[in-house]
Amino acid sequence: MASALAAPHPRAFHILTKPTGPICNLDCKYCFYLEKEALYPDVAKWAMSPDVLEAYIRQYIEQQESSTIQFAWQGGEPTLLGVDYFRRVIELQARYAAGKRIENAFQTNGVLLNDEWARFFAEHSFLIGISIDGPRQFHDAYRVDKGGHPSFDRVMRGIDVLRRRNVAFNTLTTVHRANSAHPLDVYRFLRENGSGFMQFIPIVERVSTQVTPGGLTLVSPSSSHNAAVSDWSVDSDQFGRFLCAIFDEWVRNDVGRIFVQLFDVSLEMWTGLQASLCVFRPTCGSALVIEHNGDVYSCDHFVYPQNRLGNIMEAPMEQMVSSPQQIQFGQDKQTTLPQYCRQCEVRFACNGECPKHRFARTPDGEPGLNYLCAAYKRFFTHIDPYMRFMAEELRHQRPPANVMQWTRARDLKASVATKPGRNELCPCGSGLKFKRCCGLA
């Protein structure tokens, strides 16, 4: 009898590629991936070898039915491999494309970017993601190099190089203990420095009191080791306030001009579409990660020995993607959702968010609550009237950016409703009637 978890070959899946493994030229204090080096203690050269690279590119293109294949290169830091390495990538993609459209996204800390990189990216239409955590004081709080020196100035030089060469880029900003209390400083800084596409990623890590058998100290939600939320992790309530403050600025001034990933995904969900971001889907499992040596893991956030699916040099990629282990991993997101979440009014948008963060307990003690529950409940409740308006505009084939005018009118109506009468005492505390005080304005 076929397994109940058996599944047909998926029509599309996504692989996050780590061609340098966890090796990076920065030493960001909150980075969960740097310690993955402990999983490969005998590695002498951290680079995806030519045979593994070719096998990966060939399989990734051949083994899914999508007409557009999106490669995502990350690390560690992929620029450590040099431009020539990625010229070879382009050659291999062209060899195996078979009429399919190939797109490349490249996530970098920006430190090594120069004219050669920018010319290459422009020539081959790479979409570049720059990791930057806001103004200098917030970025340099954690994003330092191996000598503990700040990286902000080097990152800004990298952004300038991309702009001079007209290379498309977006920004990835982690939200942590240092910058989470300054949402508008972060948002306005990114906007003023040319970021038209922004991602805000919460930093949430648990530190074990002892090293696990795999040599790791940042543990998964299912870990049985005693662990505490790290000092650099964002507070849940503060993350909610961070998101709401940026949304309030965006919805009044920047809709249609600045694109924030979470806001775009929210609109998808309010219009009844499936979220394009895996963390908000009911189930997961179609976004995997491949290490430098060809090892495939269930997810970028679950690179642990128990989540290794196999190696592409030993088994076809599609076999791992469709394996009972991976299907179970994806379904567990839904089947382990606490009753508290199943009854929540914003479940349609949240769906328990990322399993990585589901290590808290519900008010009645049930395990599996997302550490960021309060944040998302606050945020999704806050944006509801605006999302409803934009969804209605879309249904009538009108631009969602109309929400800015609607929001300003709503603000004006609210201010008029709270305005005191002419003969009432002025709310400023002067003791005068409103008509003789602030009402004169």
Features:
441 residues, alpha/beta, 10-stranded mixed β-sheet, two-stranded antiparallel sheet, 14 helices, 35% helix, globular
Descriptive overview:
This protein is an alpha/beta fold and 441 residues long. Helices cover 35% and strands 14% of the residues. It contains 14 helices and 14 strands. It has helices spanning 50-62, 83-96, 115-123, 136-139, 152-164, 183-192, 236-253, 261-270, 317-321, 324-335, 339-342, 347-350, 373-395, 403-417; strands at 14-17, 68-73, 101-108, 127-131, 169-175, 197-202, 206-208, 227-229, 259-260, 287-290, 295-297, 308-311, 360-361, 367-369. The protein has a 10-stranded mixed beta sheet. α6 (183-192) links the parallel β5 and β6 (197-202). α1 packs parallel to α2. The longest helix has 23 residues, at 373-395. It is globular, with a radius of gyration of 24 Å. The N and C termini lie far apart (81 Å). The model is unreliable at 1-10 (pLDDT under 50).
